[in-house]
Amino acid sequence: xxxxxxxxxxxxxxxxxxxxxxxxxxxxxxxxxxxxxxxxxxxxxxxxxxxxxxxxxxxxxxxxxxxxxxxxxxxxxxxxxxxxxxxxxxxxxxxxxxxxxxxxxxxxxxxxxxxxxxxxxxxxxxxxxxxxxxxxxxxxxxxxxxxxxxxxxxxxxxxxxxxxxxxxxxxxxxxxxxxxxxxxxxxxxxxxxxxxxxxxxxxxxxxxxxxxxxxxxxxxxxxxxxxxxxxxxxx
Length: 235
Prior knowledge:
Order of helices and strands: HEHEHEHEEEEEHEH
Mean pLDDT: 77
Strand order of the largest sheet: 1-4-5-6-9-8
């Protein structure tokens, strides 16, 4: 009798465990902009002062073009380039980027993350990083309108790792005025096999000088003011 009672008790306990509903917290999908500093250990020429007009002029020239290989281009035609930050986003992201360049130390990359809501369970992510070496601006794009599905119980890595592609994409990064491009990153082989996120290096100093928006040669003086690396957004 006691053995039967134990069996029945165990069965009831298993039933209660199995019938308990699975509960998890899911962050709501919404438009979001995050600008952070990431300590890379490398040596960059930060901090640097830009005006919002200067940085807007630079970023409005940055374009992304999806690539589908020669066969895809033959069948569907070459796709037209699109701006990395369209008009509704550039005015929102530039002020935070200006502050980031002023507060960055020589070891900080400026990391950006933009999420656009597409539905209650899906968003599109554009993310990457910027940094300066001399008079050159390096811009690396890890994700461009890359789709992210919000699934309960599955950790979301797009916010925590914005310099990593959420899923494979094939695109190139360009500058609308190519005469100011020093070179594209990465090389052809790396880009085809997706080993490195695509990017571009622009002579921003010469571009601003030509456009009549020359940047101040003096770096920002508040280098001691910084954020903890990659764990909080800029105010």
